[in-house]
């Protein structure tokens, strides 16, 4: 239920904690090898001069919402999470292994209870991505600056939860759904605009939720919502679902991190579940947030044709888990074609739970360049994601990190001078496989300055 992760980002953004808000990741894009103006970026927001855009063999009419870039399009359906022994695929299989071994259907066949889905295409409708999850029409998560829109009615999914309603409507009561998801994001070693999520959903009938009860308690009622249950749920039903959810996920983290792993539950708020929690684990001397989860909003189930059932859902990021479990220091490595990366995970082909710790094979020196600009005082700069897209579109995966290093308000100036706010972003260029030269970085930096000035209307210093 990967919109848990998305919502946490938005909640933190609202608190202006930008440096730790984003849990999503940067795009591996085309690395320029040209002189002069970077022409690819000029059509970046429209994908070309045509009035249509093609995604996965299907054409869509462009409109004012279209902002998907050629770099993103080139990576759609890269299927890292289904390519063995890629570490994302390994983590996915380890989670599926846990559910396969511990949850079986009753009867002689004892077939797996959870259906595993990992090939659902990422193009979804606005209704699927937002409306079906009860996300308000004016919610910031729908913003064009945060998503990759194909047009006003379609976009690349921002979370695998976009498929929840359709999957339940298909008749599945228990499933794990994994896939690539897309969100415009900051640039650093743990963020990427294409990343991978897994969502888990389990629905219960009354007899399934209370299998030993002769007279099972009622699951539904009409009351006021409390911290313990929704207005449409009885306290007994909500407590039973929450207990099953927590026991299930505590078993999962023990499977991934070891039986002695310490856990803690933190109450949270998500618009699509109530009550809701985050699960943290104490791993290598620090507490780490692993996933978000909760009792599904009954309105979501009612709209999906499952009004007689109650359920739980959870969502987690595969990159986040893989980086922790295997010690991978940079998110860009997941897109590496270097055999020195992929060969380190070959032992897991024969033994999925082989202990693997990634060994860095190179660390080329960084090259730093600063980008400074000003805005009139009182007019805040809210185009951080747009600036990141400009930098990605020109320098691609040569950029390791971009961070704001200086901000200054010049409010006391002499007569006739303008008041302004000054920003300075430091761009850290570092290749994963070679040493960069100052000359080639200077070319990229000039291109970034030019496009930022002309397209974003920044007053470059």
Structure, described:
- The protein contains 14 helices and 15 strands.
- The longest helix has 23 residues, at 235-257.
- It is 27% helix and 24% strand.
- With 461 residues, it is α+β, with helices and mostly antiparallel strands.
- A hairpin with a 2-residue loop joins strand 9 (273-283) and strand 10.
- Mean pLDDT is 87; it is low at 8-47.
- Strands 3-6-7-11-10-9-8 form a seven-stranded mixed β-sheet, with helices on both faces. The chain has a four-stranded antiparallel β-sheet with strand order 13-14-12-15.
- Helix 13 (384-395) packs across helix 14 (438-455).
- It starts with a helix and ends with a strand.
- The chain is globular, with a radius of gyration of 24 Å.
List the uncertain runs: 8-47
**Secondary-structure-derived class:** alpha+beta
**Gyration radius, in Å:** 24 Å
> What oligomeric state do these chains adopt?
single chain
**Helix and strand pattern:** HHEEHHEEHEHEEHHEEEHEHHHEHEEHE
What is the overall pLDDT average? 87
Largest beta-sheet details: 7 strands, mixed
Write down how many β-strands occur, each being a DSSP E stretch of 2 or more residues.
15
Number of helices: 14
Query: How much beta, percentage-wise?
Result: 15-25%
Sequence of strands across the biggest β-sheet: 3-6-7-11-10-9-8
Shape: globular
Helix percent band: 25-40%
The end-to-end span amounts to: 44 Å
